[in-house]
């Protein structure tokens, strides 16, 4: 049921504060300010050599964000690949590593094949899934459910937010188990997570501004998305969302890669969405942004108030609430979802059932 919403996608975007809250309630002991996981996990974060993540599409981007978190907060090396490549790449797998697959549907053929491949080679395998009765959930050694509720729109939105929430909790648990995070640091990260639903409620308030940009996006033939650090997967996700539902060609790049090729595309007809919360990478992204501006590119900057003040005059700015850099990718995700949604609505495409796509991809 779409309720009062025009599309399932709109409803699912709006539900994010609530479903992130549900997911957090499952993984966080609110009274103690600590992550709680089952006692009988079939693996131990403390003794893991590495984590090998595989997933497809948007779920793969969740894994890309998580790589930064596992490496930074738990000092675990992470391998990550799209599942369709992972299974044929023949990476040397070792039994001290954990395989981690991420899938909304739990039925994606390539992700399932990756899971089976890892388990056959003796690795323990964990799965982050939204459908508890799915094949991937049944076969994995450990299942970490996302509590997003049914996701109907083909374009994944709330499932990604919940995947990131679970991954954030796992990274914190791993950081504690490995003695990387102190209790105080853990509590700080948990506080940031607990504030997230409220921050996203605030982000949703700029929906009107984003709706007003739809017309100009709809005229573009190409759109670029740029970000560094955990904003880089957000850039990839923004581009995928726009492609999927508006059929406008879009690409996401690590901001530092711009001058290695894509800048050749930039002229006054190309909107460039820059995701840059005011963190330790901000200055660097801004200098990439200035290179775009110098070539006449139309900049749409997603940042917080401090970032907006420092980047004044640069183009259109979408101001999101400031947050702990840990959760910033989840805050910045919402505007890129809304850009895709409103552009598609403006263009009159079938937002919930875009052409050529299926909600669950059960063939290779
Ligand atoms: O069900 P899964 O999470 O395994 O699906 C993976 C991808 O097919 C999926 O995320 C796809 O990229 C979405 N349509 C993106 O919006």
From TrEMBL:
From which organism does this entry originate?
Agaricicola taiwanensis
Q: Where are the transmembrane segments?
A: none
Does the keyword field hold Cytoplasm? yes
Q: Which residues are responsible for catalysis?
A: 359 (for fru-6p isomerization activity)
Enzyme category, top tier:
transferase
Q: Which gene encodes it?
A: glmS
EC code(s) of this entry: 2.6.1.16
Summary of the function given for this chain in its UniProt record: Catalyzes the first step in hexosamine metabolism, converting fructose-6P into glucosamine-6P using glutamine as a nitrogen source.
Q: What is the lineage of its organism?
A: Bacteria, Pseudomonadati, Pseudomonadota, Alphaproteobacteria, Rhodobacterales
- Which coarse location class describes where this protein primarily resides? cytoplasm
Question: One GO molecular-function annotation for this sequence?
Answer: glutamine-fructose-6-phosphate transaminase (isomerizing) activity
- What keywords sit in the KW lines? Aminotransferase, Cytoplasm, Glutamine amidotransferase, Repeat, Transferase
This protein's record includes keyword Cytoplasm? yes
Q: Mind telling me which GO cellular component terms the entry cites?
A: cytosol
- Name assigned to this protein: Glutamine--fructose-6-phosphate aminotransferase [isomerizing]
Its subcellular locations are: Cytoplasm
Question: Boundaries of each SIS domain copy?
Answer: 41-180, 213-354
Subunit: Homodimer.
Q: Which domain of life is it from?
A: Bacteria
Q: Which reaction does it catalyse?
A: D-fructose 6-phosphate + L-glutamine = D-glucosamine 6-phosphate + L-glutamate
One GO biological process term? fructose 6-phosphate metabolic process
């Amino acid at each position: 049921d779409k309720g009062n919403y025009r599309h399932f996608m709109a409803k699912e975007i709006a539900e994010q504060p609530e479903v992130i809250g549900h997911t957090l309630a499952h993984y966080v002991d609110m009274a103690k300010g600590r992550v709680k996981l089952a006692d009988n996990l079939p693996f131990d974060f403390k003794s893991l050599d590495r984590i090998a993540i595989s997933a497809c599409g948007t779920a793969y981007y969740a894994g890309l964000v998580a790589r930064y978190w596992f490496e930074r907060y738990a000092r675990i090396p992470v391998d990550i690949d799209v599942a369709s490549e992972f299974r044929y790449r023949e990476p040397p797998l070792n039994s001290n590593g954990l395989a981690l697959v991420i899938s909304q549907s739990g039925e994606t053929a390539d992700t399932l094949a990756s899971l089976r491949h890892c388990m056959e080679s003796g690795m323990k395998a964990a799965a982050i899934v939204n459908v508890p009765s799915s094949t991937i959930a049944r076969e994995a050694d450990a299942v970490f459910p996302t509590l997003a509720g049914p996701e109907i729109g083909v374009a994944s939105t709330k499932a990604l937010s919940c995947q990131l929430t679970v991954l954030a909790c796992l990274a914190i648990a791993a950081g504690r188990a490995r003695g990387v995070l102190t209790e105080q640091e853990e509590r700080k990260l948990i506080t940031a997570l607990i504030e997230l639903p409220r921050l996203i409620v605030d982000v949703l308030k700029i929906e009107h501004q984003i709706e007003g940009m739809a017309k100009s996006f709809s005229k573009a033939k190409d759109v670029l998305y740029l970000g560094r650090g955990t904003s880089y997967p957000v850039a990839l996700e923004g581009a995928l969302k726009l492609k999927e539902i508006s059929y406008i060609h879009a690409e996401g790049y690590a901001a530092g890669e711009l001058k290695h090729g894509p800048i050749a595309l930039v002229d006054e007809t190309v909107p460039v969405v820059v995701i840059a919360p005011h963190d330790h990478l901000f200055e660097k992204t801004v200098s990439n942004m200035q290179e775009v501006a110098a070539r006449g590119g139309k900049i749409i900057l997603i940042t917080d108030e401090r970032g907006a003040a420092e980047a004044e005059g640069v183009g259109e700015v979408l101001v999101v609430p400031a947050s702990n850099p840990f959760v910033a990718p989840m805050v910045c995700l919402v505007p890129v979802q809304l850009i895709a949604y409103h552009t598609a609505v403006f263009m009159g495409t079938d937002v919930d059932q875009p052409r050529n796509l299926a909600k669950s991809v059960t063939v290779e």
